[in-house]
Amino acid sequence: MAQEDYILQVKNLSTWFKLDYGMLKAVNDVSFSLKRNQTLGIIGESGCGKSVTASSILRTVTTPGKIVGGQILYNDGKKEADLTKYKPDGAEIRSIRGNEISMIFQEPMASLAPVYTIGAQMMEEILVHTPKQQRDKKKAKETCIEMLKAVGMPDPEQKFNSYPHQLSGGQCQRAMIAIAMVNRPKILIADEPTTALDVTVQAQINDLMKSFQKQYNMSIIYITHDMGVIAEMADSIAVMYLGRVVESGSAVQIFKHPVHPYTRALLRSMPVLGHKTTEHLPAIEGNVPVPIDPPDNCGFCTRCLEKMEMCAHVVPQTIEIEPGHFVRCHKFNPAD
Ligand SMILES: Nc1ncnc2c1ncn2[C@@H]1O[C@H](COP(=O)(O)OP(=O)(O)OP(=O)(O)O)[C@@H](O)[C@H]1O
Ligand SMILES: [Mg+2]
After folding, report:
1. Ligand 2 is an ion; residues with CB less than 5 A from it
2. Whose CA is nearest to atom 26 of ligand 1?
């Protein structure tokens, strides 16, 4: 695939938190690519570094967190920029954030500002990204109402003047998508966007994102710990464990030919269609450790059923086992 087909390429990204009791390596040498107009699913258990990866891209990581290495190459179709080179809250990243790259979060209620109406929050997103001389409040309001309609908000004119606490959970999530979408971003990062919602609303929100993707030629990074949702949403997948991507590839490669023991375990723990959900699902044994001053090893070795001698004291390198399919496991490295 030609370089220009990728809208975002994350290369060897490391984001660490310097804590009093050690270095927490939340994101540790992470690489993945997002193709234009496609969806990349990032999956992994709680604490594996999914949200820190997202905030690294948007440059919203705050002290004691810091990007300590790697590149985040964003290609808007005209030119390529390395987002790690921008100042965390400088004009360059602010012109991209909420405009070209937007984000929606797991907890809509917590992410919306409680003291501003939905309309005020949408208007702010438009106006802050428009040069002063060109600001047109009437036109901006029309755009907001149109977007509220597009996300399926009932009574959009009335909801424009509502405060977040006056909306249901599903409506709040629609409002957050409307805010994120109002500038027609090229990339939408959705961080567990439906976890707090009931199943019917979850499906509606995911359908909405898919239809926006087609309509606006948008690329999506969809973060979740749910393999079922990934199966439905993603064209390609990155599996994270303890701050690292342990396997990545197309959705077909990951679902049909998973190779990393962790990916295989995740897939085994997925409910199978037609089986009763009350049946026992094989879970992954053990707990996820916290990567504070992690030893040089494979992070999964404490739980891996196929562990070898070297896994406990050598970091496996990422290798490409078939075109576009990458794995970080000693079992597959011919040099090991
Ligand atoms: N502001 C912070 N200060 C210190 N440590 C942090 C901070 N934010 C995240 N971490 C740590 O970084 C690691 C990765 O966290 P992250 O939030 O990215 O996980 P996650 O994969 O998004 O998990 P979840 O599925 O629960 O949302 C965790 O060990 C977490 O405790
Ligand atoms: Mg998270």
Report:
1. 50-51
2. 46
